[in-house]
Design a protein that fits this description.
This protein has about 220 residues and is α+β, with helices and mostly antiparallel strands. It is built from two helices and nine strands. The longest helix has about 40 residues.
């Protein structure tokens, strides 16, 4: 093979390898981009204050006040979790059909995971931010609801159990759930099915599925909406 042909062959091989890598990474990058956009857009829709404020600083300060605080406990096949967090209800909502209403909220959470490693247990700290859409079939922000959301999470140290080994600290967390908000007190409970994985950013990527029970207590006027 001549030097010219060798150069052409090496260049062609490099181009094919780069194209294959691009095809493999593209779906993950699209998912990550869409998630980032969703987080940015929905974060801008957090609830307005319950009473009028006079200055931009007052409005910003009022928007940072959470609507409620929650505690959540859950279980996967080899892991138990306890999570604390804050919730900010969105002021915007959408009419769905004749009676249904779509609203949403953003939550920030910190979780304590105890994972069975086979030879003992490992403690993992989970930090997350999750925008969530919520559907109210009655048309009121009380009573029965169902919801779904996807957010960004950091697990430190990297999550490992006896049977599973995550490869990245960053993971997406998506969930679906059903729950009930008491009309008078605005306390609410919900049951969630939650999945954590890195969407193929790196391998191995076994994912982990949790069943979570969540209780939220409203905070002041922000919880009365």
């Amino acid at each position: 093979m001549t030097l010219r042909n060798r150069g052409w062959h090496a260049w062609h091989t490099h181009v094919r390898s780069a194209a294959s890598l691009g095809d493999a990474v593209a779906p993950t990058m699209k998912l990550a981009t869409l998630t980032a956009v969703a987080i940015a857009v929905t974060s801008m829709a957090t609830a307005a204050p319950a009473k009028e404020v006079s200055t931009p600083i007052d409005r910003v300060a009022a928007a940072l006040v959470p609507s409620g605080v929650f505690v959540q406990g859950g279980r996967a096949s080899e892991t138990t979790t306890l999570t604390l967090g804050l919730q900010w209800d969105w002021s915007r909502e959408w009419q769905i059909g004749q009676r249904g209403r779509l609203s949403g909220y953003s939550e920030a959470s910190i979780g304590h995971w105890r994972a069975d490693t086979g030879g003992g247990s490992a403690i993992v700290t989970q930090l997350g931010f999750t925008p969530t859409f919520r559907f109210w079939p009655s048309g009121e922000r009380s009573g029965l609801f169902c919801e779904g959301g996807i957010g960004a999470n950091v697990l430190t140290p990297i999550y490992r159990t006896r049977e599973k080994r995550f490869s990245t600290a960053f993971n997406f967390g998506d969930h679906i759930g059903v729950g009930y908000r008491l009309p008078a007190s605005k306390w609410e409970w919900s049951l969630r099915l939650q999945h954590f994985s890195n969407a193929g950013i790196d391998h191995p990527n076994p994912g982990a599925n949790f069943v979570q029970f969540r209780l939220l207590v409203p905070l002041g006027e922000r919880g009365d909406s």
